[in-house]
Amino acid sequence: MLNQKYKHQFDLEDRTAKFSINILNFCRTITINYLNENQIRQLIKSATSIGANYMEANGSDSKRDFKSKISICKKEAKETTYWIRLLSNLFPNKKNELTILWTEAQELLLIFSAIIKNS
Questions:
Q1: Ramachandran assignment for 44, one of left (phi > 0), alpha (psi -120 to 50 degrees), beta (any other)
Q2: Cβ–Cβ contacts within 10 Å for residue 66, how many?
Q3: How far apart are alpha carbons 87 and 107 in whole angstroms?
Q4: pLDDT digits (tens, 9 = 90+) for 26-66
Q5: Stretch 99-109: mean pLDDT, rounded?
Q6: Which of 6, 78, 79, 90 is the most exposed place for a label (fewest CB within 10 A)?
Q7: 46, 76 contact by CB (below 8 A)
């Protein structure tokens, strides 16, 4: 049986991966045009970067490297909330979906903030 530390670690790996998938699936529903192309591209980059950097943090060789990667996760989560906010304005008909995604990005931001504070 996994101890709690490792179980929580894998839960966050899974959670960040699911978040990336949810962002990608949402973006598939958007018709890309000149007005939203950059926002969609930036959203995909920042949202998928959260999980990738978390995976790197888990493979880090030092506490300093771990904290650095977690800080990047936090920054990317914050940036993701920004892009979601802009898209919410561009697509009021998708506001419910975007609110769910924004809430998850905000929760990840708070989790990474707590990890930084406690490490």
A1: alpha
A2: 18
A3: 19
A4: 999 999 999 999 999 999 999 999 999 999 999 999 999 99
A5: 98
A6: 6
A7: yes
Does residue 106 contact residue 85 with C-beta atoms inside 8 Å?
no
**Cβ atoms of 63 and 119 closer than 8 Å:** yes
Is 54 exposed, middle or buried, given 0-12, 13-18 or 19+ CB atoms closer than 10 A? buried
Inform me whether the pLDDT recorded for 10 exceeds 60: no
Q: Which residues contact 27 (CB under 8 A, 6 or more apart)?
A: 40, 43, 44
Contact between 50 and 92 (Cβ < 8 Å):
no
d(CA 86, CA 95): 11
φ/ψ (deg, to 5) at 59:
-100, 10
Q: Scan for tokens 């990474």, then name that residue.
A: 112
